Amino acid sequence: MTPVRIGLIGCGRIVQTVHLAILTKLPNARLVALAETDAQRRDEASQRAPDTIALASHEQLLRRDDIDAVVICLPTALHARIAHEALQHGKHVYVEKPLATSLAEARPVIDEWKRANVVGMMGFNYRFNKLHQAAQRALQRNTIGDIVSMRTVFTSAARNLPPWKQQRHSGGGVLLDLASHHIDLLHFLFGTTIDQVRADIHSQRTEDDTALVQFQLANGVAVQSFFSMCTTNEDRFEIYGTEGKLTIDRQRGWNANITSTRSNGSRFEQLRSGLTNVVLSPYLRQRLSAPTSEPSFSVALAHFASAIRDRQLPYPSFDDGYRSLAVVEAAEESARSGQTIRLKGERASR
Length: 350
Known about the structure:
With 350 residues, this protein is of the alpha/beta class. The protein has helices at residues 13-23, 39-48, 58-62, 76-88, 103-116, 130-140, 174-190, 267-279, 282-289, 296-309, 318-337; strands spanning 4-9, 29-35, 53-55, 69-72, 92-95, 120-122, 147-155, 194-202, 210-217, 222-228, 234-241, 244-249, 257-260, 341-342. α1 packs parallel to α2. An 8-stranded mixed beta sheet has the order 13-12-11-7-10-9-8-14. Strands 3-2-1-4-5-6 form a 6-stranded parallel beta sheet, with helices on both faces. The chain has 2 domains: 4-123, Rossmann fold (3-Layer(aba) Sandwich), CATH 3.40.50.720; 127-297 and 327-334, Dihydrodipicolinate Reductase, domain 2 (2-Layer Sandwich). The radius of gyration is 20 Å and the shape is globular. β8 (194-202) and β9 (210-217) form a beta hairpin. The protein starts with a strand and ends in an 8-residue tail after the last strand.
């Protein structure tokens, strides 16, 4: 079977530590070339992927006939423009989230993608995390009964950020950086959309780096979320139902943990449940296969290659990227106005 020939655009920190190792070993795919304007980063990437062609610009890469698809890992403010150019060249495109800095930037990308009839996939890799997939199955089986409410936390420790991540206009801020993942996971876990948003956004160390957001799903479920880029590392969902509670803890958990309303809550029961979660954990096996990084990166990129090869619709697609970005913009409007914002019309879908 002919491998999918991939070009990588952007060779920043996460590419050097994550993407290159995956793309050089991806089954049924071959990393042909990489493009990076910074000479030092380009040389470092070439050392990690010596069999690839190193180019100084994305234009050079997009003009190559021996590349079927591109993976875009650039500062957010460049995502939409480079994705649009890649689509115009007929390339399949994988874009690390978010799709753009605004819906106005994203609309031409969506239109060109639908015209080009190629694979357009978003880097919402957490959909491929075993914990979130197990949680989705549990919710589909109605394991915890009717959903009463939900709360989520996604935070990271303060660190030195590149200048573009420190200002919202260039793609920074916690809503684009962290909240966009949880917004997409809400769509994924419940198979529905977000109907209303209310948010408070604060700047602790950099612009818009902390947010408290209330979502209401179209099915009526209320969600409270806290996002921050200047505290501890945490990524957690707690879903409360009439028959129990479902907990997903990507940082410290080994399974989608279900606490039944019929549990006696004894220490023995807690210990037995904890041991069972570790022994039967599909996430443990996934983590062991990728000990130095989030394991869902490799699964997401493999899915991209498979969607191209098998001519299948990918997920999450650019439509999912647009939907997540619409919620981010609604949250920002809410923070400015102090009002609850309802998503409707073109903002809700494209």
